[in-house]
Structure formats: structure tokens, C-alpha cells
Write a structure and sequence with these properties.
This protein is an alpha+beta fold. The chain is about 30% helix and about 20% strand. The protein binds zinc ion.
């Protein structure tokens, strides 16, 4: 699956995941993701992905599914600890054929009209950032997970 964006990302030696184990990798959405053209991204927007190339939830083994669920819960906890008042979870997959469950935090004060479908990034006061801010968020969430947010 050399053409898969997610598989290639997992193989990148420079990738710093928010969390990972043998079955799952959790990363922050990157300004370099397809369609984002290097622009700012919504801070805290994570994706939970199986290491194996599996297109849909229905393609996961029971062990992979358990790991995806466990990491979704752990990462959501870290986002909440970091200030999110709610974390949306969704599998959309219109553009990338490798399962990625999105975790999208909503921060306090976000007006109702930006909630769902998520338009939080369109709110003028939304927390957006480029590589540097994303890296700061990743380090913060990693530290929260390592402190045992389980
Ligand atoms: Zn893949």
C-alpha cells in the first residue's frame, strides 16, 4: 500500500505520534495533510488509525477494534485534560482509504452554530495553528498520556 497517505505517514521516521502501540497510531492532523495545503489546522484535531491498512471499522480484527477504542478514550481524556469541554468522534473517510477515526475537541466558549457538523475551525476565535503550534499540542498531549491518563 505504498500509495496510502496514512501507511506512508506511519512509516515516516520523523513522525511524532500523540500515542501509539503495536496496533494503533494516534496523530495530530498535520498542515501537510491532503487538502490542507500547509495552512493552519484546528488544534487538538486528532486521528486514531490502525497500523494495518484497513479501510473501515468493519475491516478491523477484534483486537484492533479494541485498541482503536482504547486509544480513542485515552486521547479524548488527554484532550479534556488540556481544556476541551467535549470531544466529537467520527469516521468519515471521503478522501483517504485507511481508517482514521477523528477526534475533534470543542473548547469552552465555542458558539453553538459552530458545534456540529464541526465548523469550529471557522469560528473567528478558533484555536488554529501551523507546524509549531501543532508540535506544542502534540508534546502536551503526549505528556498527559504518559502521566497515565488511563
Ligand atoms: Zn494505509
Amino acid at each position: 500500500m505504498t500509495s496510502c497517505f496514512v501507511c506512508a505517514k506511519h512509516r515516516d521516521p520523523d513522525l511524532l505520534p500523540v500515542g501509539a502501540d503495536d496496533l494503533v497510531v494516534v496523530t495530530h492532523v498535520s498542515p501537510d495533510s491532503p487538502g490542507r495545503e500547509g495552512g493552519p489546522v484546528y488544534l487538538g484535531h486528532l486521528v486514531v488509525e490502525p497500523r494495518r491498512h484497513a479501510p473501515e471499522l468493519a475491516d478491523l480484527t477484534d483486537l484492533e477494534a479494541a485498541a482503536v477504542g482504547t486509544w480513542a478514550a485515552r486521547a479524548s481524556r488527554a484532550l479534556r485534560d488540556a481544556g476541551a469541554e467535549h470531544v466529537y468522534a467520527a469516521v468519515i473517510g471521503h478522501h483517504v482509504n485507511h481508517l482514521h477515526q477523528r477526534l475533534i475537541p470543542r473548547y469552552p466558549g465555542t458558539p453553538r452554530e459552530y458545534w456540529w457538523p464541526p465548523r469550529m475551525d471557522e469560528w473567528p476565535r478558533a484555536r488554529l495553528g501551523g507546524h509549531e503550534e501543532v508540535s506544542r499540542v502534540v508534546h502536551d498531549l503526549r505528556a498527559r498520556l504518559e502521566r497515565g491518563g488511563r
